[in-house]
Amino acid sequence: MKYLYFPGCSLEGTSRGYEESVSAVFSKLGITLEELPDWNCCGSTSVIAVNKVLAMVLAARNLALAEPSGLQLVTPCPSCWLELTKANNVVKEGGKLAEQIKEALAAGGLTYNGTTTVRHLVEFLVNEVGVDRIKQYVSNQKYVGNVLSGLRIAPYYGCQIVRPYAEREDAYNPQNMEKLIEALGAEAAPFELKTACCSGALMATRKNVGLDMSRQILRSTKEAKADIVVSACPLCQLNLELAQFRNSDFAGKNELPILSITQMIGLAMGIAPRELGLSRSIIPGVAKTITNMQKQRAPAAIGG
Amino acid sequence: MKQRVLFEGQQDTGFLDEIAALPEGERVLSCLQCGTCSATCPVAPLLEEPPRRIFAMIRAGMRKEVLGSLTPWMCSSCYECTVRCPAQIKITEIMYALKRKAVREGMVTHEADAHKFYRVFTDVVCKYGRMNEMILLLRYMMFNHPVDLALQMPVGIRMFSIGTLQIQPHKVKNQDSYNKIVQKALSLEE
Amino acid sequence: MAPRIGVYVCHCGSNIAGKVDVKAVAEMSKNLPNVVVSREYQFMCSDPGQELIRQDIREKNLNAVVVAACSPLMHEKTFRGTCASAGLNHYRMQMANIREHCSWVTEDPVAATEKAKAIVAGTVGKVRYLRPLAEREVPVIQSVLVVGGGIAGIQAALQCADAGYKVYLVERNQSIGGHMAMLDKTFPTLDCSACILTPKMVAVGQHPNIKLFAYSEVEGISGYAGNMKAKIRHKAAYVNFEKCNGCGICQEKCPAKVPNEFEQGRGQRRAIYTLFAQAVPNKPVIDRAACTYFKNGKCRACEKLCKRSAIDFEQQDGVEEVDVGAIILATGHQVFDASRMPQYGYGKYPDVYSSLEFERMVNASGFSQGKVRTSEGKEPESIAIIHCTGSRDQRYNVYCSEVCCMYSLKFAHLLHEHTHARIYNFYIDMRCAGKGYEEFYDRLLNEGVRFVRGKVAGVTKDARDASEQGKLIIQAEDTLTGVIRRIPVDMVILANGLESQKDSGEIGRLFGISRNKAGFFIEQHPKLNPFGTSNNCIFIAGTCAGPKDIPYTVSQASAAASGAITLLNRKNALLEAVGAHIDADMCSKCLTCVSICPYQAISMDGEPQTVAVDETLCHGCGTCAAGCPAGAIEADNFNDEQILHEIEGLFSWENLPEKESEAELVESGAPKK
Question: Does residue B1 belong to any structural domain of this protein?
Fold first, then answer.
């Protein structure tokens, strides 16, 4: 099966590691994710603060580009997924804004009829790829580097993957990430703030507020005795890392590796950390930190 | 001592209807002032006017105070309020609308510099088709938080060393078609 | 005899006269064929207005009347009464609706006047051919069926029984008492609920006129107004109620323990059990799913111990039919399931309690013997009560459940009595509208309860400072001071709203009663007849008709009882005279009418087989007449002759010759438009 892939702007920049891990994992799974040709920025939560029609049009352009192929459009970024879904809903419901979107697209020679399906990566992994398929790659764990069992991984969902729409998921107590964590043999460490806000763009516009909000989340994961935090969103991942970088409360031996969902899956599948972009984390030495943890817990698991 | 009386004749008594007339404002008249939105908002404890109060002020016709408030600019789009509002008011979307209105009517205060962030973001996307984080942060912080920019150097250096600082903006290929679409969209905005 | 018609055009104040030129309509009517007198008047429905009609009937020998006014739904009954009182068969009166069908829906006055003229002319055309009809009287069966044995059903049953009528009270649980039996104290008097309820329960159990069918359900209703047959299923209890003397030894010794539904799952009961100590009837039933014998063939301890040999494992469901004249539905409500609001932690955190769970906790005969303790057995230091759980919410129930503010105050008071805890009530509005209710609120204010006006966003265990560790933290905006507050508590009590029973749809269909969007039964008129329904022999009472407190429930139950008693007291009910008649010579027995009749009033039987309408069941809706392909069915007041003349009349008004005859146009002296 082939799918179209919408990386989103972050994955080309600060979340390059996420992008590399998506590539590596899907390549190993044998699933083709074809990057949507000539995609543009979805607008995220920023353009809509300036210009509503433009925001919807930017998102809709991508939907229009995807439509002719009839393939599903998968995106790893919850904000992209939300904006694309919002634009999709507007076009499907019809009305004034839908007409404006169509008019704007037509100016550039594009049409959109509302038939593109957009999915976000977490839900896609659980429902389309399937937990069982992922498990197959995890069953033959020979090397310490693959073994996640014995490790407690905290699933951090953040906001836009469960609110305002929770696709095939419980908005208050989502479980998709727990399912993936457990499929990899690790222990899920759900924590009270697993759907709380990391502060999003406030980390740039009001840094102190942003750091405070992200640190609350880290504190909550520590209360749940997490070894690693896995995130569904590139900005959440960055913010949780920034909240630790050069912060004495969290730096040094208190550091929590923050992995993207495919980085976690890739490790368990036996893909080398380098290929998964672990070195792209702002926190230095993530791969080593994890390996040390694995060495401590894994030997029992692999009988070594 | 300053008098704190709201003279009805000086308020914009049509403000509530104006917000209610927006597509986002569909259910705003049903607000019970229950306070769930404020209680669940992660930044509410920092705000002079938490979300519920903004709606109370809209009702009272306090246009200046609402559009000059920092509150919409502190919204991180977490959507907790929207999901929990018993009247199902699209609070987050209304916050976006207030952001747009505040800029258009020139009511944004100096403190709400976040609007410049969104402006730069939009300009970069309109120009290149894709966001470039370095350009965004440089442009925004150089003018608004220059000290902070200097303090962020270690992060910048780190990001550069791990290859996540994209210097060259990635452009959309179909520039002509894209520009036409953007121009048309801008012309349609009310 | 030649028709002699009187036409009366009503102004209805300015409702009609404000748009329609009523004088012109009366003027035109004078010239219609067979019209002997034509009048216009301010308010035809008033006494003087009606007197005009009566006088004309007597003095001018009218044998048909047309009242051009409002909708028949408003005043057909009134004017029929007027005619009957003057000696004219009331089916020779027809209303011409020139208000709802004309003045209220037409913009242009000229067009409205023309339309009014057409309508009146049509009605005059038809009324000539209306046949005099008479309602049939059928005897009303002198007994009442009350469905549901909560306080509403109990009150209604006692009222009817005391008035001398036989009552069948059907209750699906093995004891009557309903939700009120679960409560500890009732607001605002703080009476012990069981203490005020049980005397009524006992009265029901002992009343010679009440036949109590406990552990039973109504399965089917058939028949017609005042003559209904109810099929009742007696569920197998595996205990012979006649033999059982309620000694209770079986319950004591039964080894199987399961969660007790009466204690909201927080306590346990045995497989053979009575619902609560003061149950009426005080007979146990065996829960098949929990019983060791039914599950794996062992035990039978109850049978061995029972001195009256009352245990009968072979018992089957029984079915019984009773004849009744009136039915009162008092099927009650269910409580909102707070697990639908995961942010409140119900079901997730053990110390979040629903309203009923708390009632049972604080009740001396409940699972905690009246001691208020956390799930860890400690005395709580601080307690939160959350109002509006599931109510006033677009996502769950949009309506206000009426009783929650009051019972939340009651909870606060009980907690004040039973504990030394700090008590917080989180509310949006404080609704205390009944007698003594506002005073009760003031009492609570003076008991030192801390009121926070702010709907709780969520209950969390995420502690932000030392005082919050290990507690349930409530975050709410104190909207009155405008600050966000975080309040750590040991226990949370939810004020769950009231909802319609989940099978209210089935009950509605069974009895033919409509429900509103929230599933509550719809009353005949929300202001003037809140206890009647569209069926004049079926009444509703209590929370099945909407959330309400106990005084309103009891009042409504007595009202429903009075409705039933009024019906039964007359001994006869009048069946609507309008019905359908099948011409056997034209009928081809295609049976189309049988399948389309909404009241199942048509059937084919007899030797030789004929298709006929049962007049008692027929409502005169006309569906069969419209559907018959052979035109073999005639509906009273809507036969071909009548309708065709009405149509002719509609077009005749424009070119009427001036009449020279005795027809009078009488000026009413009413003020000009």
Answer: no
**Least confident interval from A82-96, B167-181, C168-182:** B167-181
Cβ–Cβ gap C477/B86 under 8 Å: no
Q: Across chain A, what does the average pLDDT equal?
A: 91
Helix (H, G, I), strand (E, B) or coil at A231: strand
> Which residues in C lie closer than 8 A to residue B45 (C-beta atoms)?
484
Rounded CA separation A121/A117 (Å): 13
- Per the model's pLDDT, the better-predicted residue between C621 and C141 turns out to be C141
Which of B48, B75, B104 marks a domain boundary?
B104
Q: Count structural domains, chain B.
A: 2
Which residues from B are below 8 Å from C340, CB to CB? none
Q: Looking at the structure, do residues B120 and B35 belong to the same domain, yes or no?
A: no
Half-sphere exposure of B131 toward its Cβ, with a 13 Å CA cutoff? 28
Amino acid, single-letter form, for residue C218: V
What does the angle CA B167 – CA B168 – CA B171 come to, to the nearest 5 degrees? Answer: 145
pLDDT at A304 over 50: no
Partner B, chain C 372-411, Cβ-Cβ below 8 Å: 388, 392-395
Domain-terminating residue out of B81, B104, B127: B104
Q: What is the DSSP string of B27-59?
A: TGGG-----HHHHH-TTGGG-SS-HHHHHHHHH
Q: Are residues B160 and B72 in the same domain?
A: no
CATH number attached to the domain at A2-120: 1.20.1050.140
pLDDT (0 to 100) of residue C666: 67
Q: Supply C81's token pair.
A: 């009464």
- Judge whether B2 lies within some domain: no
Would you identify the CATH topology of the domain A142-301? Rossmann fold (3.40.50)
Q: What is the pTM of this model?
A: 0.87
| A170 contact residues in C (CB cutoff 8 A) | 342
- Chain C positions touching A217 (Cβ under 8 A) are none
What is the helix (H) or strand (E) element at residue C424, kind and residue range?
Answer: strand C422-427
Do residues B134 and B179 both lie within one domain?
A: yes
A48 in contact with chain B, both atoms CB, cutoff 8 A = yes
Domain edges within chain A:
2-120, 142-301
Domain annotation covers residue B3: no
Alpha carbons C129 and C149: distance in angstroms, whole number: 52
From B57-66, B159-168, C163-172, C245-254, the region with the lowest mean pLDDT = B159-168
Chain B nearest-CA residue for C397: B86
In this prediction, residue A248 carries a pLDDT of 62
Kindly compute the dihedral angle of the four CA atoms of residues C143, C149, C152, C155, in this order, to the nearest 10 degrees: 60
Alpha-carbon separation of residue A105 from A62, A102, B178 (angstroms): 10, 5, 9
Q: Measured between CB atoms, does B87 come within 8 Å of chain C?
A: yes
**A80 close contact with B: CB closer than 8 A:** no
Do the Cβ atoms of A220 and C462 come within 8 Å? yes
- What torsion do the CA atoms of B170, B176, B180, B181 make, to the nearest 10 degrees? -50
User: Is C123 within 8 Å of C649 (Cβ atoms)?
Assistant: yes
The Cα–Cα gap between C128 and C65 comes to 9
What does the pLDDT read at residue A301?
A: 54
Of C342, C462, C464, which is closest to A172 when you measure between CB atoms? C342
Are B90 and B157 part of one and the same domain?
no
**Residue-range definition of the domain harbouring residue B48:** 8-104
Whether residue B18 is found in the same domain as residue B98: yes
Are C418 and C370 in contact, with CB atoms under 8 Å apart?
yes
- Residue C670: is its pLDDT beyond 50? no
- What value, to the nearest 5°, has the Cα angle with vertex B114 and ends B111 and B119? 130
How far is C508 from C531, CA to CA, in rounded Å?
A: 15
